[in-house]
Amino acid sequence: MTSILDQAAGTFFAEAREMLVQMEDCLLRLDAEPGDRDTLDALFRSAHTIKGSAGLFGFDHVVSFTHEVETLLDRVRDGTIELTAPLVALLLRSADMIGRLIGAVESPAAEDGTGAARDAESRALLEALHAATGTRPGDGTTAAGGMAGGASTTAQATGTWHISVRFGREMFRNGMDPLAFLRYLSTLGDLEPVVTLDDAIPAAEDFDPETCYLGFEMRLSTGASREAIEEAFSFVREDCDLRLVPPGSRVEAYLALIEQLPEADPRLGEILVACGAVTRAELDRALATQARTRETEDVQVPIGALLASETGVPAQVVEAAAARQVKTRETRAEESRLLRIGADKLDGLINLVGELVIAGAGANLLAQRARDRPLTEATQTVLRLVEDIRNSALQLRMVQIGETFNRYRRVVHDVSKSLGKQIELTISGADTELDKSVVERIGDPLMHLVRNALDHGIEMPGERRAAGKPETARVSLNAFHDSGSIVIEVIDDGRGLDRDRILRKAIERGLVEAGTSMSDSEVLNLVFEAGFSTAERVTDLSGRGVGMDVVRRNIEALRGSVSLSSRVGEGTRVTIRLPLTLAIIDGFLVEVAGGSYVLPLDMVRECVDLRPEAAAQLGDAPLGCIDLHGEVLPVVHLAAWFGRPVVASGRRSVVVVRFGENRAGLVVDRLLGEFQTVIKPLGKLFAHLRGIGGSTILGSGEVALILDVPALVASAARGAQAQRKEEQTCPSSP
Amino acid sequence: MSVQSMKSAAPSDAGDDEEMQAGGEPTQYLTFSLNGEMFAVAIDHIKEIIEFGQPTEVPMMPRFIRGVINLRGAVVPVIDMNARFGREASAVSRRSCTVIVEVRSEDGPQDIGIMVDAVSAVLDIPASDIEPPPSFGARIRAEFLQGMGKVGGRFVMILNMAQVLSVDELAHLGDALGAAA
Q1: Distance between CA atoms of A451 and A404, rounded to whole angstroms?
Q2: Residue B131 pLDDT more than 70?
Q3: How far is CA A662 from CA A386, A564, A640, in A?
Q4: Domain final residue pick, A356, A376, A399
C-alpha cells in the first residue's frame, strides 16, 4: 500500500513540476502580451491543479502557499488586479517557491539547513502576495469586462450539498486512497455525516483486498461551487460514479439519485434519510408519485425535465449546464488519453524491436536463399510490418524540442533583468521532434550557448544604440530537420566574434602556431578547442570554466557536430547538428574489401558507377577526385583508406553523400541496398576510431560497421592536408 | 561449451569446488595454450567459451584487435592474445576458441573475447602453489602476470586480466595507431 501511495506521489511530483513549467511559461507569455485570456486561464488552472493534487496527499504547506497564489490569480482573472511586470516577477518567484516546497516534501533529507531560509522567504512572499491581493487599483469597468470574458466560477452562498460517490474497483491499484478524497472534501467545508456503503463487498472467499468496493453518501456544507467539488474528484473522475445534489434541491432530485445508483432503492432511501437529506415522509410521498407516473406514462421522465418542472429552473439553464458538463467530461477524457510510461519500459520495447528487426532480416535472408517465393513474400510482409512497428516505437520516444526551448524563456527573462539588457527571445520550429534521449542530453550544452549569447554576445542598450542597432536585442532558437539530422541554431544579433582577437588568443594559448593561414570559419571554430575562453572577465552567468570545448564534447558524444559563424557587429550563429535518434536508423549497406559497412541512408544523395578511366586515375590512392555531372567531387577510396587490399578489377561504385554543406564521394566495391540498422555501440575500445560510428548486426548474424560519414570525411580532409605538408615527419594528430 | 560443463568435466582430484582460501582467493583457473605455452586465467573473470568464428575486422585498429563478433545480439571485440603479447598473430585452427572475459572499466563491466589456440581444462591451484612472477625470464611483460602456478611439475603463467585487457590501455594503443595513420 505504501509503495502504491509512493508511486501516486511520484506521479504528483512529476505532474506538479510540469504544471510549474506551464505556470512559468504562461507568466512569461503574459509578460510579453498582458491580458491574454487563454494564457491567464491556463495559468490559473495550473496553480489550481497543483493545489488540488497537493491537497489529496495532505501536503499542507504546498496547499496553503499555492492557495494564496491562486487567490491573487483569481483577482487578476476577474480584472480587479492588473498584471504588471512586478507582479509577474512576484508570481515567478512564487512559482519557484512552490517548486521548492514540493521539492522539500519529495526529498526532505536533501536540504538540511536550508529549510529555515526557505520558510522565511516563503513568509516574505506570502506577505507580498497578500499585499498584492489586497490592493485593488482596478476600477469597475475593467472588472465588468473581466467578468464578461471569463467562465469563472461565481462563489455561492454556503449550502449543503449531497455527494454520492461509488469509487472505481481499480482505485487502490491506481494508487488512490478514498480517505484522501474525503480529507480534501473536508477542507472545502463541513463534511458530515458520511455514510460508508459496503454493500458491494463480496463474501470473504471472493474478496480481493486490492479491489475497492466502497461507496460514500455524504453531506457537505460549503460555499464551494459544483466545479470545485467535482474538481476534488478529478483524479478518479473517469472511474468513479459521482453524483452531486445541489443545496436546496427538492426530493425528486434525490429520487432520481436513488434510481441511478446501483444499490437497491429502499436501501438508498434509508441512507438518505439517515443522512438527513430527505425526511421519511418526503421520501415515501415521492416514491409513490414516481410509481404512479411510471404506470400511467410507461416512460421515464428525464431527470432534467423533472428537475425543471419541480424546481422552476428554466429548461435552458439545465440544458446549458448539461452541455457544459459534457464538454468538461470530454476535455477530461482528452487528458486521460495521455499515458505516463516509465522511460525504461520504452527503452526495453525499443531494444526488443531492434532484435525483431535483426531477426526479421535473418528470416528474410533464409527465405531468399531457399528460393521459396511464397515464403519470401510472407517474410517481406513481416519485414514491412516490423518496419512500421519500428517507426511507431521510435515515434513514442520522439518529443518536441519546444519544451526544452521554453526553459530558456525564463533564463532570458532573468538574465536580461539582472544584466540590464533588453532581450527578446524568439523561438521557431518548437514542434520539431527528436529522440528523448537526445533532448535530455542537449539541455546543458544549449543552456551554455544561450547564456554565452546573453552574457557575451548581447551588448548593453547604450552600446547598441551607439552602434545604430535597436536597443532590444534578439536571441533566436531555431530547430528544423535537414537530411536525417535535426539542426538547432542559437542566433543572436549582438557584437559578434572578433576573428583577430580569437586568433591572437589561440596563438597565446598555444592552440595554433603564429603565421598559420586559416580561413575565417576555421579561426572562429577555435573557440571550441579545449582551454580557450574569450571572456575577459568572469561573470556569474558563464565563463565558469565550463567552456565551449565541453559543449562540443557533449554534442559529439551524441554523434552530433557544432559549428559557429559570426560577423563583427552583426551577431553570432551557433549551429548544432544532431542525429534524430540514437537507436535505429535507415541504413544503406555497401561492401568494401569483403566487409559490410552501413551508411546513414539520409546522407546518401546518389550512387554512380566508378568509370574505368576514373578508376585508373584513382589507382590505389586513398583520396582523389572524380567528375560528377561536370563538377569536381572529392572521393575517399574506402578500401585504400582502411588499408585493405584494393581490387583493381571489377565494377566499383561511388556513393555520393551530403551532410550540411559538404559533399563527398565514397568509393565502394558493391552496393547492397537499404537496410534497417539497429545501432550497437562499439564500446570504449573503439572510442578513438574516427570514421566508424558504431556497429550493427546483419540478418546473417554478422557484424557490420556503421560509417560516421562527417568524421570520415573530416579526417580524410585532414589526411589530405597532411599529405600536402610532406615535410613534417609526424602529421598533426586529429 | 559452457563454463559450467567445463567445471564438471574438470578433474576433481585437485580438491573440492567449495575449497576456497580464507582470504577469498580464487583457486579455480581455466588453462589454455598459446603458441605451445600454458596460460591460466582465474575462472571468475570468464563468462563463456565459444568456438572461434571469423570476426568482422575493424579497420584502422591495432593488429591485436581481430575484430568484433555478434554474441547473442551484443557486439563484442576479440583480442588476439599472441598479438597482444607482441608475437605473431595466431593462426586459426580447429581448436581455436574465443573465451569471453568480463573486465571492469571506468564505464562498468565490459565483455571482451580473447582468442586462444586451445582451451585445456579448469584446474584448482591452491594459493600455496602459486609463486610470484619472476622479474625476468618469463616471455611476456611482467605486469601481465599475476603469478606462476605449479601444476603437475610444470609452471603455468597465471594472467592478470585487468592488465592484459586494460580497456584504457587497449583504447590508447588504438588511438596512437589512429593518429599515426
Answers
A1: 14
A2: yes
A3: 33, 15, 22
A4: A399
